[in-house]
Design goal:
alpha/beta; 39% helix; binds pyridoxal-5'-phosphate
């Protein structure tokens, strides 16, 4: 028996464990400190009533002989794929339902999609980045090139025609930077990918936070994207499904003359047995008029938090990306502090916890991530403390 030696090449991530240790140590030494956590990327608001009602109704379906559902289609039930196609149509994107694959979340699909690509591909990944893209490639022994995202390019790097890549990861609006590409930026990537016969793996997990109507919410709003892109999306941030689990992936049939769509279908039907009927019913309820309105209210709650934090950084004159069209704010640490020094400074002097940018890649050092997923009153309180400390 041989093990996959590439696992030894994975870099150990101490980011969240180090944060937890530092916060616990500080809290133990200062039990009176009222610590506010603005570091977590998980949602905090409950599922909306329309989703809960649909989940309850689906549970009842499972209790009756005539409405019981066993194994479903591995690609997802027709009712959910139709609803998703309708959602894309609202943004001017026409998809065939056979191009949409329902899954248990974007993370699984972003990792699993590599099954259909050879290991000799050159992979291009922006830095800083959502760590899953890098680690899944390292596990498979692929060569990874990093692309510098930084203050100069507003954390929205564009392609370099002198560098060849086969697989390109883009995430917009981005985790951790909150930066979102405009049409021209994504068009440059689509043109590059088509010219290089490359594929863009586009992570749209935060598309629901885009408010600016001039910004794309799907890569398929870009001319030529259907011949070079696969899109991953999720109900996690859109509707609070982080613990309920549902997402989807779009593999257009125009990509390699349908070959990748066929291969992904084959991959999913072989290794995946579908998302629970009950969960898919809950997910579909997001697209009813009532569900959509309730989801927008929850998103509005987080967006108001983001605005409170953005206004605070504006008032302090601190450079940042995100905050608009994203639940994340990615700020430049004041006074040239590195990420971890600023983390300690904020914890000790404002009792506010964020995420050091250095944990997301080399280019993240000197930057810091705050999230809008917290409680509104606590976020407001954190903003006041930041104002006092950093003025
Ligand atoms: N993609 C990005 C960029 C994320 O930040 C996350 C979660 O934080 C995911 C994907 C995972 O989403 P899901 O919960 O659908 O697996």
């Amino acid at each position: 028996m041989q093990i996959n030696e590439h696992y030894a090449d994975l870099e150990q991530s101490y980011l969240f464990s180090t944060i937890a240790r530092k916060v616990n140590e500080y809290a133990a030494a200062h039990p009176e400190a009222d610590i506010i956590r603005l570091g977590i990327g998980d949602v905090t608001r409950p599922l909306v009533p329309a989703v809960i009602d649909a989940l309850h109704a689906a549970v009842t379906d499972q209790s009756r002989q005539e409405t019981f559902h066993g194994y479903g289609d591995e690609q997802g039930y027709g009712f959910l794929r139709d609803a998703l196609a309708g959602y894309y149509q609202e943004h001017g994107v026409t998809l065939d339902t056979t191009e949409i694959f329902v899954s248990d979340g974007a993370k699984s699909d972003v990792g699993n999609i590599l099954d259909i690509f050879g290991t000799d591909n050159t992979v291009l990944i922006p830095d800083p980045v959502y760590p899953v893209y890098v680690d899944t490639n390292v596990m498979a022994g692929r060569k990874v090139l990093f692309l510098d995202a930084n203050e100069q390019n507003g954390f929205l790097p564009l392609p370099d025609p002198s560098v060849h890549a086969d697989i390109i990861y883009l995430c917009s609006p981005n985790n951790p930077t909150g930066a979102a590409y405009d049409h021209a930026g994504l068009q440059a990537w689509v043109d590059y990918a088509n010219a290089e016969h490359a594929v863009i793996l586009f992570d749209a997990a935060y598309e629901c936070f885009v408010e600016d109507e001039t910004l794309p919410r799907s890569i398929f709003q870009i001319e030529g994207a259907k011949t070079c892109a696969i899109e991953f999306c999720s109900f996690s941030k859109m509707a609070g499904f982080t613990g309920t689990r549902c997402g989807w992936t779009v593999v257009p049939k125009a990509l390699l003359d349908g070959k990748l769509n066929q291969m992904w279908l084959r991959r999913q039907t072989t290794k995946f047995n579908g998302v629970p009927y009950i969960v898919q019913k809950g997910a579909a309820a997001c697209f009813t008029a009532q569900g959509m309105q309730q989801i927008r209210e929850t998103l509005g709650y987080y967006k108001r938090n983001a605005k409170v934090l953005a206004d605070t950084l504006d008032a302090l004159g601190i450079w940042y990306t995100g905050g608009k069209n994203s639940p994340y704010l990615w700020l430049k640490c004041p006074n040239g502090m590195d990420s971890w020094t600023f983390f300690d400074y904020l914890l000790e002097n404002a009792h506010v916890v964020g995420t050091p940018g250095a944990g997301f890649g080399r280019n993240g050092d000197g930057f810091f991530r705050l999230t809008a997923f917290g409680d509104a009153a606590r976020t407001q309180e954190a903003a006041e403390r930041l104002k006092k400390l950093l003025a």
